[in-house]
Amino acid sequence: MNGKILITFYTTTQAMEMEECCRQEGMPGRLIPVTGKISAACGVGWMADGQERAGLEAFLREQRLAFQNIYDLDGILKR
Q1: Residue 47's closest CA among 25, 24, 74, 65?
Q2: pLDDT digit string (tens) for 12-60?
Q3: Distance CA 64, CA 21 (A)
Q4: pTM for the whole structure
Q5: Which residues make Cβ contacts (< 8 Å) with residue 1, sequence separation at least 6?
Q6: Separation of alpha carbons 65 and 16, rounded Å
């Protein structure tokens, strides 16, 4: 996947925890506000290159970080 992915969270605290863990471990991506086309309970998501998806999914599991969903932004934004 060459596009972007978006990881959404139920709470702002979860999103901020993701940001802190990613900074500490040098993981790619950044927090962004989430648009109306995507459901994010807290209104914030972690955006990264699609090629990083497998690594970020493993990171979420390893760090036991809670999240709502992972979206392929190319598929959503082209609709």
Answers
A1: 74
A2: 999 999 999 999 999 999 999 987 777 778 889 999 999 999 999 999 9
A3: 11
A4: 0.88
A5: 50, 51, 53, 72, 74
A6: 11
